[in-house]
Design a protein that fits this description.
The complex is a heterodimer of chains A (106) and B (186).
Chain A lengths: L3 E4 L3 E2 L4 E8 L21 E8 L2 E8 L8 E7 L4 E9 L3 E11 L1
Parallel strand pairs in A: 2-8
Antiparallel strand pairs in A: 1-3, 3-6, 4-5, 4-7, 7-8
Chain B lengths: L15 H6 L1 H6 L3 H24 L8 H12 L4 E3 L2 E4 L3 E4 L3 E7 L9 E8 L6 E6 L7 E7 L5 E9 L4 E12 L8
Parallel strand pairs in B: 1-9, 3-9
Antiparallel strand pairs in B: 2-4, 4-7, 5-6, 5-8, 8-9
The chains are: A mainly beta (106), B alpha+beta (186).
């Protein structure tokens, strides 16, 4: 299981814009680098990242090999209702990771 | 013990300078035989990297044309205007492997007028694409931050697509001292 670190506020006022940060451990191998044997190391990256708030998509990102290793993404969202913010990463070699955090909106 | 020892090692290794530079060689040094194996390994590593350096000029590189084509793919025939977008990236970075980048767009982010997508491109990495992010009024603010790799001193371009079908752009020049993406593992 991939190592995931998500930073989002636990509580927020309704209508407040909150910042959500998500970090995941991944090599993000570009597929352009020769390894120690001189051969190109095959590409292995995370291609898609998405975030949903109570099942409704709030953010989606398509990554390329130009995203640094251990991809970090920060975006904002309007606190609409209490519930779950779920994150999903998917990429090469069948890589899939998911994470979710709770948020209480008052 | 040393399973990665290469088969024949005819030539006397003369790579003392490479040996001192390569951290891998130092780690392998355990006994007389291991030292020999390690030096041969160093030679292999050295030759591999030398070969990599020689073929590097032929390695794929995005060009200003590829950048323009990639932007065209996103915008279509719509005009691209300068402004509204802010690209926050350091002007000089030491290590191109992780360059912090923040794109923010001036927008009220209402249902009628919001930023639909933010696209980031570069000029000289092997591929012109960096990322595409899709936003909605549920974001409240059109701000996306991430960390990217830059293979060379180059131009980074951000394009924002609004719900009205407008495209706004901005570019930033970044000087990179240690390249990323294509540098070999040594």
């Amino acid at each position: 299981m991939a190592n995931v670190l998500v930073n989002a506020p636990k509580t927020a006022k309704k209508g407040q814009v909150v910042e959500i940060k998500a970090l995941i451990m991944h090599v993000m191998e570009t597929g352009f680098r020769p390894g120690t044997n001189g051969r190109i190391i095959p590409r292995n990256i995370i291609e898609d990242f998405s975030a949903t708030w109570n099942g409704r998509e709030i953010f989606r990102m398509k990554m390329s090999p130009a995203i640094a290793a251990n991809p970090f993404v920060s975006f904002s969202a309007v606190a609409s209702e209490s519930g779950i913010i779920a994150f999903r990463w998917s990429g090469d070699e069948g890589f899939v990771a998911a994470h979710q955090v709770d948020i209480t909106v008052t | 013990m040393n399973t990665r020892r290469p088969e024949p090692r005819g030539a006397t290794p003369r790579l003392s300078e490479a040996k001192s530079r390569d951290p891998f060689c130092g780690r392998q040094k355990r006994g007389p035989s291991a030292t020999l194996g390690a030096t041969a390994l160093c030679r292999r590593v050295f030759l591999a990297s030398a070969a990599a350096v020689t073929i590097m000029p032929f390695a794929v590189h995005a060009t200003p044309e590829a950048l323009a084509a990639a932007i065209k793919e996103v915008t279509g025939d719509a005009p691209l205007r300068e402004g509204k977008v802010t690209l926050d990236v350091p002007p000089l970075v030491e290590n191109g492997n992780a360059v912090p980048l923040t794109v923010s767009v001036e927008s009220p982010m209402t249902a009628g007028d919001h930023v639909k997508a933010i696209h980031v491109f570069n000029e000289k990495n092997p591929q012109p694409h960096v990322f595409n992010a899709w936003l909605s009024p549920a974001n409240g603010r059109a701000v996306v931050a991430t960390r990217i790799k830059l293979a060379d001193t180059q131009k980074v371009v951000a394009v924002a697509e609004t719900s009205k079908g407008e495209f706004w752009t901005v570019h930033a020049d970044v000087i990179v001292t240690i390249a990323a993406c294509i540098e070999g593992v040594t």
